[in-house]
């Protein structure tokens, strides 16, 4: 029997997540297709998400990072992989590409029926004097990690500067600390992990500093200088000066679009390749997948460049489907992301508050800080969870979570709910795993849903900490006096929940908005209900004093008290 | 201002999860209501899920288990709690209950506008001779745990028999082992954790035995005898005889319905109180919540008695809402459950295969065994995941998972998808957290969705291990020869994936069904695609040789080879 499926010739440029997935999927749909995968590097299908852990030997060898070799592609999938082969240009009219063999220097043309661009993203390199100095590295490929490892070994590196507090920057910081290297982390924003809102990060900043890292926020590198001893000096715009033996750049990536430009295909406003929901570019014979593309955010409808492995893999499969005549479409991205560092986890899905504000989208939010499992079993770790939703219908818009345990689970639950158009009412009713080690009869996700639903229903409208939220209101702290004494919001009156009912008539002014808070929001909720049922116009500060502290540390409140 | 809300008198019988939630919620809706909570025990609102961990001192004191005292109910919620007060009977016509103060012996009547029955469930006590012997305990209340602790201390207990391999039985087994007590675990079924299907359990059975527990499955206790030295002898129907110093009964619970019967309200076929979706019983003034009730399973539509804390709490709130004139309804249960033991986790949601078979519901299934995170980072632990779905539209029907890490997360993700009517196609596209420590670019949930979707689309139809699934077929093992040598299914032919294409024409018979398997299903999938595209009628064994081993160990296959 002859092998079946569409007889077509598919060239794929770039052999990591999206490109490799596309190649393998194409073969699974057609045995008759000719499939060639080009990569200018020496490896395909490697796990670049593991590179920071390779630098520190947490991952013991390069082989572990290589998910499939060219031989395996040949043996398992009958796919021809040409490594160290750079595709130089595309002739979209005549449908061929120009390829250079980087080993021999030979150049040749290769024709295609369908071309898939999966060139990925490249580290951003801002025009900083000295950026090309020896000892300054980005980390995107296996050779990058090898150069870094060699430099560390040869120079007996004990001090490092990491520029950028995103995923790579944080993971490199952690791995350096793990290696006993002293780190200065410089980030241009006033927070690490830009996908989250500022008030979610103070505890992460504290943890980073507790582990001995010098954290330099809201400052950018202005100059790098090499010393005679091969050491490096980094100067910042803020006038700081740091010495180190190595500098890692982790300030983000840009989509690689040179080839797309040579093919004359359309780019989007964010500079990535514009693709439709079939992953097809403006040229009908050219597809594109992965980090080089702009993809539609399902919450905001905006196009964004979002370098994430999961969506890249999905796009690879969808491009292959459509090339082979199957109809399948990409539902867009919801920006689920996660980073683990120093025994903490930072994760998010959907839109953040900054984005919703920028787009002037309707939203409300809840803050809560439950334990990752029931408090009665030893070892419960608090998490800070923020959920954003549409206050009209409760539709979930996004969530952020920071903590030591169970963070990924809660974001994945909410991610799944968002995917299905879920609401805070769905979270309220979610039936999640409960045994003492794993959660609570009211899981943090249930609690988030309840708090939001109580607000939407008008039972316990929420207040939020911001510069003027508690002016002209009666600010009521319902914690016990001892808690109040240990710290409170300036101007707050302390009437504990336990004596609220008796004090209500004499100590709480009628006809004035009452803003209630407690430690994390629960007693404030009970107090708010009692007050509202007694005719007071009360609202409850979401997240209570803990949220206040987080907002204040993030610099989002007046530096009062 | 006078306190607002509905002026009604609510009596609640039973003060644990459902009853306590109902009381607190009722107060939050009405400050004007009179709310009295009765419990015949000495405690309300205690965490009975924590009791096994209290026995072993993992939870250090009783106080930790008490979530709210009568004083706190009074102070925070203005709710009157009457402990040690047994409600003896209900006069539903005249709307009052008869109460006995168990301390004084006094009896009195208390009238109500609305009555909520939350009496919970009681341990099953089958008619076994000697069941009342000193040293035989159930574990449902704080006093139960105190009796057990005292007995252990006084008798210097070193040997125990646990009867029943459900949640309580397994948790008690683990806690006994933690205390250095040697355990025999006797279970009537051929598996522990009845909510899961049999093939999911062999690795759990092995783990239990590895930790030194004598596991006696498929046998039941016929007789218990006390020895002169206060030791106990347990005899089984299978003719076994075990000595021990303590016996714990964990063979399940029955809904407590004596009071419901005295009120003349309707019970369901399973013996629980029948309630509607407002948690109202057949008497318009009587509501019921929690373990005493039958609730509707949202997958099967069947009514079931399911003692779970989460649904009990939800019902408590819903009953309170409706009593207070709010319309809210209970969506039913989906039977999400979890148990941790010996560093393993066993969890499930939705319907299992046994139930789907019994109800003759249409379903298909996938088995897979991915790591809890990427394999390239050290420490990945395999999990066995089973997902059940409707093969016509892909609708998710249930999931089961067993492993060491990340099990609760996957079940919660699928639980959330089920709640929203999700399909295997949704799982395929789910955008979940991925960094090396937390999952994979293709999370186990994504993989489950892909395998099922590939089967539904006809790309790679699945085969399943059962007694006759591989008769009259060409059974093809596509693993490498060395793997084949270490163990394979009797009658299988070994042609590894790497040489499949060259061997296809000469070694594989045309016109005969080809059943393919590999280690866990992935290479089998690639082989199945290649075969089908070349005209063969191939199917892939879901879960591969690992699933075969699990089925065989569970006794579901002929004891071949």
From TrEMBL, chains A, B:
InterPro entries for the chain: FAD-bd_OxRdtase, FAD/NAD-bd_sf, FAD/NAD-binding_dom, FAD/NAD-linked_Rdtase_dimer_sf, Pyr_nucl-diS_OxRdtase_dimer, Rhodanese-like_dom, Rhodanese-like_dom_sf
MF (Gene Ontology): oxidoreductase activity
Keyword Oxidoreductase: yes
SUPFAM superfamilies registered for this protein in UniProt: FAD/NAD(P)-binding domain, FAD/NAD-linked reductases, dimerisation (C-terminal) domain, Rhodanese/Cell cycle control phosphatase
Keywords on record: FAD, Flavoprotein, Oxidoreductase, Redox-active center
Classification via Pfam families: Pyr_redox_2 (PF07992), Pyr_redox_dim (PF02852), Rhodanese (PF00581)
Record-annotated Rhodanese domain positions: 475-553
Claim: Lyase is one of the keywords in the record: no
Cofactor(s) the protein requires to work: FAD
Similarity annotation: Belongs to the class-III pyridine nucleotide-disulfide oxidoreductase family.
Name listed for the protein in its UniProt record: Coenzyme A disulfide reductase
Organism: Porphyridium purpureum (Red alga)
């Amino acid at each position: 029997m002859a092998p079946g499926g569409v007889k077509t010739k598919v060239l794929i440029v770039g052999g990591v997540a999206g490109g490799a997935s596309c190649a393998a999927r194409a073969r699974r749909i057609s045995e008759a297709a000719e499939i060639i995968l080009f990569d200018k590097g020496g490896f395909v299908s490697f796990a670049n998400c593991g590179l920071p852990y390779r630098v520190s030997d947490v991952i013991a060898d390069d082989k572990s990072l290589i998910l499939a070799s060219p031989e395996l592609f040949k043996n398992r999938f009958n796919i021809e992989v040409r490594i160290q082969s750079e595709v130089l240009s595309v002739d979209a009219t005549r449908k061929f590409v120009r390829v250079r063999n980087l080993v021999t220097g030979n150049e040749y043309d290769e024709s295609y029926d369908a071309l898939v661009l999966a060139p990925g993203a490249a580290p951003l390199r801002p025009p900083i004097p000295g950026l090309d100095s020896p000892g300054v590295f980005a980390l995107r490929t296996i050779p990058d990690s090898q150069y870094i490892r060699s430099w560390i070994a040869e120079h007996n590196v004990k001090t490092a500067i990491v520029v950028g507090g995103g995923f790579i920057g944080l993971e490199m910081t952690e791995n350096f600390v793990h290696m006993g290297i002293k780190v200065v982390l410089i980030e241009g924003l006033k927070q690490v992990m830009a996908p989250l809102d500022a008030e979610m990060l103070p505890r992460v900043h504290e943890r980073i500093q507790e582990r001995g890292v010098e954290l330099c926020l809201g400052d950018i590198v202005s100059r790098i200088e090499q010393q005679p001893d091969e050491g490096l000096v980094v100067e910042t715009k803020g006038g700081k000066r740091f010495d180190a033996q190595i500098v890692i750049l982790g300030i983000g990536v840009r989509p690689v679009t040179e080839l797309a430009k040579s093919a004359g295909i359309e780019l989007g406003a964010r500079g990535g390749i514009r693709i439709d929901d079939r992953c097809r570019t403006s040229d009908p014979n050219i597809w594109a997948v992965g980090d080089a593309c702009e993809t539609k955010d399902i919450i905001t409808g905006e196009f964004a460049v979002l370098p994430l492995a999961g969506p890249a893999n999905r796009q690879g499969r969808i491009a292959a489907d459509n090339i082979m005549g199957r109809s399948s479409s990409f539902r867009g991205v919801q920006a689920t992301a996660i980073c683990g560092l120093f025994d903490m986890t930072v994760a998010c899905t959907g839109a953040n508050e900054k984005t919703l504000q920028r787009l002037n989208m309707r939203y409300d939010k809840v803050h809560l800080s439950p334990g990752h499992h029931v408090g009665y079993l030893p070892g419960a770790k608090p998490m800070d969870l923020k959920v954003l939703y549409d206050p009209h219908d409760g539709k979930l818009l996004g969530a952020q979570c920071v903590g030591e345990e169970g963070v990924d689970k809660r974001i994945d639950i909410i991610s799944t709910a968002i995917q299905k158009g879920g609401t805070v009412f769905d979270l309220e009713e979610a039936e999640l795993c409960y045994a003492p080690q794993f959660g609570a009869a009211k899981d943090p996700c249930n609690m988030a849903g309840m708090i939001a639903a109580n607000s939407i229903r008008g039972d316990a409208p929420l207040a939020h900490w911001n510069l003027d939220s508690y002016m002209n209101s009666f600010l009521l702290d319902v914690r016990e006096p001892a808690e109040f004494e240990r710290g409170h919001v300036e101007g707050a009156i302390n009437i504990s929940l336990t004596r609220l009912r008796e004090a209500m008539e004499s100590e709480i002014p009628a006809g004035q908005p009452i803003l209630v808070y407690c430690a994390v929001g629960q007693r404030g909720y009970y107090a708010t209900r009692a007050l509202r049922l007694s005719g007071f116009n009360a609202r409850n500060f979401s997240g209570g004093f803990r949220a206040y502290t987080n907002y204040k540390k993030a610099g989002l409140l007046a530096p009062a008290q």
